[in-house]
Amino acid sequence: MKKTLVCSIGVVVMVTVLIIGAALAQNKGAKDMKLDGGSRGEVPFTHFKHQERLGDCNVCHSLFPQSPGAILENKKKGDLEKKQVMNTLCIKCHKTEKRKGNAYGPVTCSKCHVRN
User: Fold this and answer.
1) Residue 30 — φ and ψ, nearest 5°?
2) pTM value?
3) For the domain with range 30-111, which CATH number is right: 3.40.630.30, 3.30.70.660, 3.90.10.10, 3.40.50.720?
4) 72 sits in which H/E element
5) Is pLDDT above 90 for 100?
């Protein structure tokens, strides 16, 4: 009886840990974001839409960490150049998708940057 109780408690603890771990793994950040766009104004970013389309977070996050404000912070530290993310990732990807005949996002700066 004691063995059964200990095993049952162990199973409950393991299942709880797995559920919590799965919930934390599903944290995909904000649905929509506003990225710092410097003097041209902020850039609205449909984060979940990009995650669904790309399927691999490292497509973007190989350049910067998955944390709020990471792009701006890395620019200030000198780890990212001005416009590096937008030109290397965003515009390049959108133009590639356009050439392939797929749905694509904006391919010019003024289509993304919104002055307040």
Assistant:
1) -70, 150
2) 0.69
3) 3.90.10.10
4) helix 70-77
5) yes
